[in-house]
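From the shared-data thread, chain only:
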Amino acid sequence: MTFQTLTPEAMLARLVGFDSVVGRPNAPIIDFLREGLSVQGLSVHVLPGPEGDRANLFASIGPEDRPGYVLSGHLDVVPASEPDWRGDPFTLREDGERLIGRGACDMKGFVAAAVAMVPELARMKLRAPIHLALSYDEEAGCRGVPHLLAALPGLCAPPAGAIIGEPSNLTPVLAHKGKAAIRLSAKGVAGHSSRPDLGRNAVHHLVPVLAAAVEQAQALQSGPQDGRFAPSWSSLQIGTLAGGQAINIIPDSAQAEIEARAIAGVDPSDLLTPVIDAAKAAGVDVELLSRYPALALAPDHPLAALITRLSAREPLGAVSYGTEAGLFQAAGIPAVICGPGDISRAHKPEEYLTRTELHATCALIRRLGETLSD
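Structure, as tokens:
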């Protein structure tokens, strides 16, 4: 069976079969897609990231010199080390309607539908292009797609919109929160706990900064509100805390990771300012781990009307999880979320997509092609 004749289920099986875990090299899955799409006559660009061992892929169907629409998905998945898998997470299993495997829902199902539809789209006389934008390391804070977006002006006319296929039960989503995350690192001097005067406790060094984080988290609850989100305020939390080797050893290092999630109109980095100021005052190192802005597409935007017609569903105002959509918007490309599956299945053992959801996504993409055809 050739790439061009793979069914959506078979395409999903091939994609799930690549162990494209976030933070690892992704050449095998990129090469598979590049070779298959190139054979079909598409304009395909592999865009390596600064890491050197990971790349984005961008491909176009139709006239690249006209504004078209982007189908956007990420190729990386979270690790699948949970003991509750009933089979190999990287071998797609079928259980009735369910297609089970790591990434089947988040979000290789959308990618499989888009790629499986390429032969049909290529036969249409598109007056405006449909682009595929496939990124890496989304699960690490959307680290790959900014490099793709930076290259976009040299690859096609400015797109009229982007559909980000994250799991939303194929219900359009117009807004999501933004996020920024940092790592705090404190250094101390090890020693026996009976002589604290001869050492310096790194955990103690970190405490004033953590106190600033807790204070900021509490203050945000009474800050700006947006009723579309749950919770309706921007939030901040200390997610991880590590330090020390034993109770009778003075810790010589300590680390904490803190994230902020911002409602639309609020810069997530600004929410971390009191924590960063406290860290500077305490001599604690700060490292930016990730950042992406919130998404906010106006309900009366033409893209909202288009995705409503394509999905035959009224848009959902907002969700609290984040996606690459905010980065597309920040790059001047209107964006909306609309993809198969439910986000509640993501990042869990026995992750799955149903056949019905997969084929419904193909139908949505077909309608997009028909809308853009002569």
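The two ends are 31 Å apart (CA to CA).
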